[in-house]
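Forwarding these from the shared drive since the link keeps breaking.
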Amino acid sequence: MAFAYTPGLRVASVTEILKERRLPLTGETLVNIGDPVTAETVVARTELPGNVKMMNIANIMGMPPGDIPELLFKNEGDPLEENESIGQTKGFFGLFKNTVRSPIKGTFESYNGITGQAVLREPPIPVEIDAYIKGTVSEILENEGVIIKTTATFVQGIFGIGGETRGELKVCADSPEQELTGDLIDESCRGKILLGGSFVSYETLQKAIATGVKAIIVGGFDDKDLKEFLGYDLGVAITGHEKKGITLILTEGFGRMTMAHGTFDLLRSREGMLTSVNGATQIRAGVMRPELVIPVDKTLSDIGSDKQAGAMDIGSPIRCIRAPYFGKLGKVAALPAELQVLDSEAHVRVLEVEFENGETATVPRANVELIEE
């Protein structure tokens, strides 16, 4: 059978996931191949150089830079305590000595005999990365990190903000059409990943933050509310670094968007399970989608073979991503091979889509996005 190919989001009930966990700088790995890990297990560690503090010792002492070295109490690489003496003038007859003290705890890194500047460095900043998901170490990236393998339910969203977090999945909507409202969020939601339906408002998002909710998964969010929530226009930069106290993942887009029934039903069936989420999104080169990973107790023999990425055939679930059917969900009813002429007189390939309400339409293939299951 011939296939059409189109970009799409992946929604997999059970699949094998490989997650690369890499340090920003070289460091050390703390686990071995085959080790079981939880989401909280620290798998690699390194240290970032501490911040630098410049200090003009010659000016403070009121002496030529070349005379300073013999007055210093510290050599390059020596540790420093805050307010510890670094050097001292000889004074007059042992009196009126001028003492230079360290403003920080750290290391005396260097002194420049021409400029009189000393470089003091604060203590290194420890950086640790955890496994993010429950699984097994499948590969060691020498001095850089590891690759974790797990069997999991995997769902990609269209857009997200906020970084990695994890918690128990709690369903707060009765259907994918229902809005996640403030009255549905209470103390029982603290520390949880909430599954909503079609929409969440700015006010509800703020209540979720105040309650201690870790993440919200819904169909849509208002783009104007997004600007107010972030405090700036997002532009085309990669998301995921926002420090707003919550991670938000949209499965459908901006506006009041009914979540795909298959996605909602799948996630509802996973209620109560530990869920790892990441809102990082990048639309341009090197596409990155927000995601949910829910490790499940399945053997590899239980995993069905995934359909070839991007392969779309009769019955494939799709989402329209351009007007006049923007946001509508349906399935492919036919894939005509011949080109058709649009109102713009462009010759394009089209498909016939059957929407969830039973209506059908013919749309350009470029106007749909595949929901990969």
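-- next protein --
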Amino acid sequence: MCAILPVWLVLGNGSLPRIASSFYRVLLLTLLAGALTGCGRVPPLPGDTGELVVLTLNGPTTYFLGADDEAMGFEHDLVTAFAHQQGWTVRFVVVDSLDSLHARLARGEAHIAAAALSPLVEKIGGVRTGPVYERLRQWLVCGAQVTPIPRSAADLGGLRVEVVGGSAGAQWAQNLRPASLGRGIRHMEEATPGELLERVSHGLSDCTVSDERNLAIERNYLTGLDSVFEVAEPQHLAWLVSPRLESGFTQRLQRFFGKAESAGLVAQLRERYFGHVSRLAEVDVLSILRLRTERLPALKAHFHLAERKTGIDWRLLAALAYQESQWDPHARSFTSVRGIMMLTEQTAEHLGVEDRTDPRESILGGARYLQELRAALPEAVAEPDRTWLALASYNIGSGHLEDAMRLARKQGKDPHKWKDLKEVLPLLSNPRIAAGLPHGYARGAEARALTENVRIYYDILQRYEPLQSQGTSWLKRLLKP
């Protein structure tokens, strides 16, 4: 049968002739793709080989390569945990569009698809869905150049609106009356949500549809994005399951997600990847992007040296330095901390830093200090929480951090998890509570803010700056699930 089908159908890669809408293109493709099960590479059942084959999309909320080119991401870690529980290994297959993902899964070329997916194609081509594990709001996002700001779909006349083909945004657009379409809504078949937000930010289109999580992440890199109204009910996210798998596989998924939620695994992964992405002020985004070209180049050699000496990713050190001083060697505070890494006189003396305003000395000293703080934490503190707790300790000192860990334990929280500890840090400034602590009052809310800001700045620098010492960074093992 494959020989007599048109080439564009066999490919299933977004090169279809244009028809009425992206949604119906997905419908046609997936219905016909069921006939092609024998044409593609159909993997054996995971129970037969011990390998789970997973289709996914590249992106900050799904699957991407981190330090040392190691795969990571919310969906990556969640799938890996599921496979580990079953005693399987995982092979991820990154595809270039939702259309391709839906079609290839319907053909049985993988066991599941995991990519922050809305179950739009359930029962099309036999595809099923696993349990819903997330609900995200969907926003129409417009650029600063759009005036007046649209308040409903009826205001879209004349605007250039782009949506990811096959997405929840595409389904919303399909339901709009033609009079609301303005210049026409373009279905971008191989674009990612981040790419469309970038086009809006740069004025290449006027508006797009984005879920709240992608929007929060991209706002830390892009400016001029305004979420103007919700386009539909919150989007339910679930994995899609191949029609070749029996219902018992879906039952495995249900048991896994039930245990993952009750054990706190899903919450832990949310914290790891999204707990720090609440939006920076737009002035902060503009500032770090500007100073990255104005001040950072003269300091890179010192950060690279500090990475070689300590094994700490230089971009994390640079993010900490930006938070502390905006990369100003002569910065100082009212408490007399000084230099790029804002070291106290006592800490500088301990580290052997003679001149805190010397960039090389300050950066090397700050790197060694962060290294000491990480090493001093209890062995039970795993990464990446170990690094986030060390950053908080950099701000308030190890004694006050120990007080916060005591408070967390007293409240029934896990003192070794940043997700729990950051909830109690602000209590260190409560006079009634501080009076009963061994180390007394501390500006715990400031330590929490520093840590969350550094995490965001680190994300920004990872996007634009390469890792210096391939293979030496402790982040390779830091970010493993």
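The chain has three domains: 2-133+237-274, 136-236, 282-478. The domain at 2-133+237-274 is CATH 3.40.190.10 (D-Maltodextrin-Binding Protein; domain 2).

- D.
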